[in-house]
Amino acid sequence: MHEHVSNYLDQYNVTETARRFLSQAQRMYVDGTWVEAETGETMEVYEPSTATLLTHIPSGTVGDVDRAVAAARSAFEDGDWARMTPRDRERIMHRIANLIDDNAQTIAEIETVDNGKAIIGCLDADVGGSVETLHYMAGWPTKIEGAIRSVSTPGQHFAYTLKEPVGVVGAIVPWNWPFNMAMWKIAAPLAAGCTIVIKPAQQTSLSLLYFMELCEQAGLPKGVLNVVTGRGSSVGQHLAAHPGVAKVSFTGSTEVGRTVGKAAMEHLAHVTLELGGKSPMVVFEDADIERVVNATQASVFFNAGQVCSAGSRMYVHEAVYDDVVQAVADRAQAMKLAPGLDPKSEMGPVISQQQFESIGNYLQLGEQEGAEVVCGGHTVDGPGYFIQPTVFGRTDNSMRIVQEEIFGPVLVAQSFANEDEAVRLANDNEYGLAASVFTSDVSRAHRVVPRIQAGTVWVNTHDLIESCMPFGGYKNSGIGKDLGPEQLDHFLETKTVWIEL
Ligand code: NAD
Question: What is the pTM of this model?
Answer without folding.
Answer: 0.97
